[in-house]
Amino acid sequence: MASLKKKIINGNPYYYLRECKRIDGKPKIVWQEYIGSPSQLVARLTNPEPKEIVVRDFGAVVAAYDVAEQLNIVAAIDRHVPKRGNQGPTVGQYLVTAAINRCVAPCSKSKMAEWYQRTVLARLIGMKISQLTSQRFWDNMERVEEKAIVAIEEQIAATAVSRFDVDLSCLAFDATNFFTFIDSFNNASHLAQRGHGKEGRDNLRIIGLALLVSCDGEIPLLHHTYPGNQADSTTFSGLANRLADRCRALGEGVCDITLVFDKGNNSKQNLKKIAKGPFHFIGSLVPTHHPDLLAIRRDQMHDLDPDQFPTVSCYRTSKKIFGVERTVLVTYNKQLYQAQLKTLLRETRKRKKKLARLQDRLQAHAKGKMHGKQPTLQGTKNKIRAILSARHMKDLFSFTIKTVGKDKLPKLIWSFQDDKWKELKQTLLGKTILFTDRADWSDEEVVRGYRSQHHVETAFRRMKDPRFLTFRPTNHWTDQKVRVHAFYCVLALMILSLLRRQLESSGIAMSIQRMVERLSDIKEVQILYPTPKRKSPRLRAILSKCDKQQLRMLKILQLSKYQPT
User: Fold this and answer.
1) Residue extents of the structural domains in the chain
2) Three-class SS of residue 220?
3) Are 285 and 435 in contact (CB under 8 A)?
4) What is the Cβ-side half-sphere exposure of residue 439, based on CA atoms within 13 angstroms?
């Protein structure tokens, strides 16, 4: 037990804190610290002003760092991308730092050091601020080739599955794209291409990203970066063998895996490759390609379990799909029907107004009531095509254009096809056509399995969140750098998905965004107190005040081991 000891030196009193213990039967001082003269003690007790207070980010960065440690990410990267000799921080340390940054506060490489300095990572990772220049990052990223990324990801995914006991019975695959600001005349990138951007930015070059995620926690188990103008079915075909190999490695040949994918990946070749793989599958069909299935009436369908699917009914049959007999489910969802109906009603109202305005303008020109450039037949056709470019609009509206008068001005006659509208409501709206090789599954199991597709869609939405996990900005313009960027963005998604899953399994269910916000509010506060001359300042480090939920999160994630002593 510590005690206060007074010493008289040159006639003046001085005070020490010390602790004595009996060792080999004799009392011995095991530690002693000088705390000052009486005047210094009075000053410290009556006016204990700190010399300096430093606040650093703790909760979110430490939680992400802890998952990275459990996954052995640094060791996995360094195993496949080693450095020769002692050349400063390893490639693994750089990429883990970038992944943690994407988890909590995405920024450019030039701002990485500034962010790093505001966190406790310097104590955990050990890199110096001077080593975090953008050039050092790029130099280390340059060492990571595409083959290494595939090997590293396979090792990390296997660790995630075994360490966190991830259920592999249902896996979802899908692809999306991200717009970039890579210059149109930059020939160094073949990944960034012009194509149909899923975020509506068709004027920008886009990069494609495919993901395989577990339906248990939305953990990414495989990713692939590809040219933005490449079709989804082509991407799936090129990845089929890798998907099969990854599933075999993760499932160790004993796991019954069902792969869920969207209709954009359908092709005869892809279905053949899936049949050779170590998994079953559930997919969907393009409804308009199967009018016989759309013709099935609702009164021919039976309701599914009302506890699981209260608004869904289905019709089960079998049909040859790409030459192979498959189990097919035609499902009708009342909620989906109402949503699609509202959308189509809104869109048709818009088209009716636009066609009516165009018709009035053409009539006004014909009567000489409008001045300016005269409309042409081809120009009018182009305008109508633009008005009716949305889905189903060409079927629901009919029009004819003829020329009238000596100037041969175009005249528009249009109508809304009520019979087509009635047919659309009876056949297509609210329906989804599923097909599978799981003939042994019930209707409810097949529908529930297909709905697992939302897990990969959720993963993509998270990667497009501008606050956390964002894929943008890429700030890279070569394919090799873009692939590395995509790799640590997917690592960040894996880290946060595992964190969220861990909290949810312990009763704290929240979105990734909310989880990061709650953890980010937990700060480490370092207080430096002045000490007598020639002595280093006395440091006290504590965590900021936490509410009950934050304290519980710290306990569940076992982050107390990272608190300073």
Assistant:
1) 1-46, 284-448
2) strand
3) yes
4) 6
